[in-house]
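DM from R.C. (forwarded with permission)

"hey, sorry to bug you on a friday — could you get me a structure for this? deadline for the figure draft is monday and I only need the backbone to look sensible"
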Amino acid sequence: MDQETWKLVLEYLAVKENPGRSKAEIAMLEQKLNDWADNDAERLAQLEEALSLWEDTAQLPDDGSWRESFAIIKQQLDEAPAKKLKILKWWPAATAAAVIGALVFFVTGNQKTAVTNQNAIAWVTKTAEPGKIINVMLPDSSEVWLNSGSSISFPQNLKHAGFRTVKLNGEAFFKVKRDPAHPFIVKSQNIQTRVLGTSFNIRAWKGSRPEVTVLTGKVAVSRDSAGAQSSAVHLLPDQKAVYDLRLARLLREDVDDAKTSVDWRTGKMNFESTPMEEVFQIISRKYAVKIITDQSFKNCQLTAKFDNVALSEVMKTIGLTFDIHYTINKQTIYIKGGKCN
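My reply, with the result:
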């Protein structure tokens, strides 16, 4: 949502609550907002992104031009009792309630902002250390399994938030408690995943292409770049969305069996033409080891399946596949030589 549209929303609320304004003026502004929204999913997504940002940070984006542009509107709103704000008829009730809450927060002035910052909502972060997989029960009773080396952050008031927003670094499997009035949103690397209640896996390692795979229910995935949302890609069971880093766009793909995407929960590793640099990263996280090579394996790929086997078995297979020599010294693996097949 651009600056001028936010200004229009604020102006509409200010005029509507001012008894001295005419019905014609109110109707004109309401029509402008109806024309802008027009049930457009992408514009509603932009609106939700702005609201979740405010909800996450308890403050406006650090952009002085916004405050300057809204200074006059804020003055008008300061004179209007916030408790009288009405729900706009063309928004769903849950979304409208979140909008009203965000706007009331904005217009209460510097004094209210200072109080809000002092009582800012606390965030909790849970981390699965290398070599460990942990289960996390969120405040809203949703369950999350974190893969080794991953972390998730969520607000303590997640259960009561208008948008249940969490942040993921790494890989996790989600079983989200259904709550249609409070969408569940996962922010991870370049993408945003939105659900009402379902199970899905997100793989979003730094430097790798993010993926969202759906096991049950329906999921909407959109590109999140510098706060700008793309049109959502909707996924059903046995489908996944892949974010192409080079093209900066989301691609939807069918999968044979989505359950294989969470095999990592039982210690399995499935590689299908996987670049060796990624293979080494996965091994490092799973077994809590450091891998040192004397050459690049940038153009090498591995296709193999490991069913919760010991590290020595994994390295034996890789050694035979790429003709490498390796030694394991405590938590470090040294690799020499090797060639791609």
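R.C.: lifesaver. The chain has three domains: 3-118, 123-259, 267-337.
me: no worries. Residues 41-57 form the longest helix (17 residues).
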